[in-house]
Amino acid sequence: GKIFSVCVPARTSEGTYPYKEISKYCDRVFVMVYDEHWSGSRPGPVATPAWCKKICDYAVKTIPPEKLVMGVPFYGRTWQSKSDAGAWYFSGANRVMNENNVKEVTYENDIPKFTYSATVDVTGYFNDAYSVLNICRMYEEAKVQNIGFWRIGQEDPDFWPWLKIKQK
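RESULT FIELD:
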């Protein structure tokens, strides 16, 4: 009476997470089709339809249809044009202070401390009802029987009226 599910990252070929082998040992394989771009990558969408299609094409060839669950992201990410976080050696800290016109160094717990303000440009990508629906339609065209979401509560509420549950 229980279902054993395994979540695997998005892949387009065999490797660390061999979908075919994993699917032999579980009832469901949930392919987490997100993080095409992530916090450490260059800016871009969490999951473009073209990238999702590549993952889907591989998944439907390697995971039995009744076990396959394709993931859909309900989130996005932002990137800054620059980051001032870092580890600094003494001359580097002095260079940063000079570049940013730091006029005062204070001491906190006997350690020198400085502050300055910086302006950054922020680029963000996110999923709305339209983008999620396009991914879902692509999965439907690929004959994917099951989809799952990361994470309910983060979605554009306009998506739900478009979702039609097919009864088995």
